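Bug report (template v2)

What were you trying to do?
Predict the complex of my protein with pyridoxal-5'-phosphate.

What happened?
Run completed; filing so the output is reviewed.

Input:
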Amino acid sequence: MVNHRGPEFSDIVQECESHLRTLIGTKNAIMFFAGSGTGMMEAALVNALKAGDKALVLANGQFSERFAEIGVAMGIDIDSLEAPWGEEIDTNDVATRLAETDYRAVIGVHNESATGAVSNLAELGAVIRKTPAIFIVDSVSGLGGIEMQQDAWGVDLLISASQKALMCPPGIGLASVSDKAWALIDEDDGKQRFYWDFRKAKNAATKGQTAFTPPVTLLAGLREGLRMIDEEGIPNVLARHRRLGEALRAGGAALNLSIFTKAPILSDTVTVFNVPEGLHASAIVGNMYKEYGTVIAGARNKLDGTVFRFGTMGALDESDIILDLLHLERTLQDLQVPVEAGNAVAAANEYLRRG
Ligand code: PLP
């Protein structure tokens, strides 16, 4: 193991930071933590808010609701602006709430992994930046697969994690904080934080370090994932995610599968299909794995049974999508769903061949 206070590790951290700044679209320092996405969600709130502060959660899915739960556990005065799961939050409603109430923060999720809905961060950020509130965003399952322009869009506190489109195993959390958010974070006004204290992390980051012992080997892995993104080129990486997501959806449509998501921007890192009538998602997910060794997901929330989800993030190419669709078609046949053999692969292939 290399010494995490030594020069080799500092090179790794600095290279990760440099790649991430480009990927995130920010001039901010990038802070790394040993932690999962949920840890970073909590870290965001404990640094920006304290008990009694008012914050508005844009609640349209599992992970935005988790943000609200964390806030409530911390004694933050959380208001939820709700939209049905899978739909988008109306920016005009956010503007109205901000005009009515002095919120310290508006909290949202870039890519709702449970529903496949992508938030229009540019539009939301443009409204929030005109107010004193900061905009806190979770891009755990977006970053690296869906465009992020933190500074241009007015995202003040962005958190993410290593294990999704950044192509690294789980265990690294990261955060990027604007000057507007630092003004809140720097206030010593009774916030309860120690391990997650962004002030310590920022100080360590200036030396190419982390405040406490980092997951050294994972950061070496993250550097490799970020090098892969850099070599392919960010626009190409994003276009590949779009193309493969669309090909999967074209194949799904050929199997008469409908998409759960109603929001205008569909995720390119996760596609959520409704389960055909008469089936439970676990039958599809279980058969895909048992018979064909393909891992997809159901839902671990109120959608349990009714949707199944394909992750299309990171190092994947056309062959993954074609094979997934073949396995899906066979699975539906195994489960006695009437589908025309070959249609899904043909539809995806046709889409991929054209573009
Ligand atoms: N936010 C989003 C959008 C996620 O998809 C996830 C996990 O899937 C999390 C937060 C929580 O991350 P973790 O499971 O790493 O704690």
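What did the reviewer find?
Residues 36-38, 63, 109, 113, 138, 140-141, 161 surround pyridoxal-5'-phosphate (CB under 6 Å). The two ends are 45 Å apart (CA to CA).
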